[in-house]
Structures are given as structure tokens and as C-alpha cells.
Amino acid sequence: MSGSNCTGATEFILVGFTEDPASQVTFFLLFLLIYLVTILGNLAMITLIRASPLLHSPMYYFLGNLAFVNLCTSTIITPRILGGILLAKKGMAYAGCMAQVFTFGLFVVTECFLLATMAYDRYVAVCHPLLYALVMSPERCSRLVTGSYLLGLTNGVGQTISMSSLFFCGSSTMDVFFCDISLLISLSTSDTTLSLVILRASSSLLGVPSMLVVLVSYVAIISTILNISSAEGKCKAFSTCASHLATVSTFYGALIFMYLIPRPDTSRGGDKWAAVLYTVVTPMLNPLIYSLRNREVKEAWRRLRKIK
Predict the structure, then answer these.
(1) Residue 172's beta-bridge partner residues?
(2) Average pLDDT of each block of 10 consecutive residues along the chain (308 residues)?
(3) Greatest Cα-to-Cα distance within the chain, rounded to the nearest angstrom
């Protein structure tokens, strides 16, 4: 029940990282550098995939969409961090927080399913190479990507409905740098039953299945690789999955630490660095991982430079 002796919140106070002026300068420069690398790296990846015929394959079609989602995720979070540090403004309007819950909920689940789709793509490529062209047809790839965005949209709408049903007393303070739905629920002064049901249903019906697809795919991939007789064959098969496996490990590892490891709600503010990993750092690392470890991407860069 909402309190009768308090005014509904018009903004939320996001504590951020530090009050020390010297440290704030360091954090501002660090996050600015990360954001610039994220924007340039993901835009470069999208441009390269579109421009190079060598990368016109299902795996890179999925990677191009992942780069777009990473751009959106980073842009939802990082400019707000930079603005908060530069302007010393910790408050975020209720409407702005609502918009961030929607967009972040949309893109984080979309990324989960894109990573699951990419794991399935690698499973087919390694375990059933003769059927790859048939199974991963352009039409099926398009449906898989569209489905990922639709599931993300479903989550975004659900989380927004969840938040809109909550009542907050005055200016609520959160020891984070973005509007985290789990903390918002814990701060509400109204009945949180519906919000908790939506959050748990979203985690169970959207998050867990995508992780299971990744897990099952890589169990089958590793089993197949171990059965390859030649060391060269094993190395070649694993190299096709190494970049994606690194991305999956970073992203899901941070999500599991943040949302699936049980601990008191009051201690979640201390997990902000895990949140930094999957909201800020991972979108920067993905294009670097794929460009530095992938021979086809390197070759595409070389050919593109020769054309110019």
C-alpha cells in the first residue's frame, strides 16, 4: 500500500561511483574512452559486415545485429553516467527512469537471444556442417533475429508495466548508476507482488532458456571437437567458436552474478562493478574480441583497405 503521508517520487537519486572530485575526473575520462571505443568499434563492425562479401554469412549477420544491440545498450547507460559526473547531477526523472527500464529491458533480452542464436549457429556449423546451408537459410536467420527483438520488446513492455504499478515515497536513492528494476522493486512502498511475478517470469521464461541453449550447444560442440582425431582439425573447429564463447562467458557471467546468486536486496548496490561489466565493458569488448581473434574479419579488413 502506498503511504498516505508521502509524496510520489518525481525523480530517483542514482549515487553513482564516488564523491571525490579527483576520482570523478578519472571515472569521467575512463567512461568517455570506453564509450568512444564502443561506438567506433561497433560501427566499424557493422560497416565492415555490410561492405565485405567475405562476411555475408549467417554468423556475421548475427554479429552485425549484436553490434547494433551493443551500441544501443551502451548509449542507454554510458551518456547518463558521463552527464551525471560532468554536471554533478545524480537525480533522474521518473519518466527518464521509466524509459531506461523499457529500453534496457528490451536490448538486454535481445542480446541474450542473439547470443543463444549464435551458439546454435556454431553448433550446426561444427556438429552438422553438411546441413549448415540448409538449416541456417537466410529466411530462418531473419526469423531468428526478428524473434530475438520481439522477445526483447516483450520483456521491455513487461518491465515497464511492472514499474508503472509501483509507488515510491519522495526521492528514492539507489546505490547504482542506472535504473535497475530489482532495486526499484525493493524501494517501492506499494504492493510489489505483480512486479516480482513479472520479474521472475521474465527471468524464468526468457533468461533461463537462452542460457540453456548456449549451454547445450557448447556441450555438443565440445563433445564433437574432442572426437576429432587430428590436432589441426580440433584447433580449426574451436577457433570458429572461441570469439563467441568469450563474449558469452563475459555477458552471462555478469548477469548470473547480478541476478541469480541469492543475497539480500540491500547488498545489491555493491554489485555495481558487475553491472558495469555487462552494461558498459562488454559492448566495448565484443567488436575487439571478434576483430582480434577472427581470421575472416582480419582478412576482410585487409581487402577493404586494398580497395581504398
Answers:
(1) 12
(2) 60 78 86 94 92 88 94 92 82 87 92 93 91 94 96 92 80 79 82 82 84 91 84 73 78 73 52 80 85 74 72
(3) 74
Question: pTM for the full model?
Answer: 0.88
Tell me if residue 93 falls in helix, strand or coil.
strand
235-241: Cβ within 8 A, 24+ apart: 237/126, 239/293, 239/295, 240/122, 240/125, 240/126, 241/122, 241/126
Which is nearest to 258 in space by CA: 207, 196, 296, 298?
207
Q: Which residue has the cell 528494476?
A: 181
Residue 138 has a pLDDT of 94
Identify the three-state secondary structure at position 169.
Answer: strand
Residue 98 φ/ψ, nearest 5 degrees: -60, -45
3-state DSSP helix/strand/coil percent for the chain, to nearest 5? 80, 5, 15
Whether 119 contacts 213, CB under 8 Å: yes
Q: Provide the pairing of β-strand 91-93 with 11-14.
A: antiparallel
Residue bearing cell 545524480: 90
Question: Whole-angstrom Cα distance, residue 250 to residue 240?
Answer: 18
Q: Which residues, including other chains, have CB under 8 Å from residue 22's CB and lie 6 or more apart? A: none
CA distance 215 to 264: 28
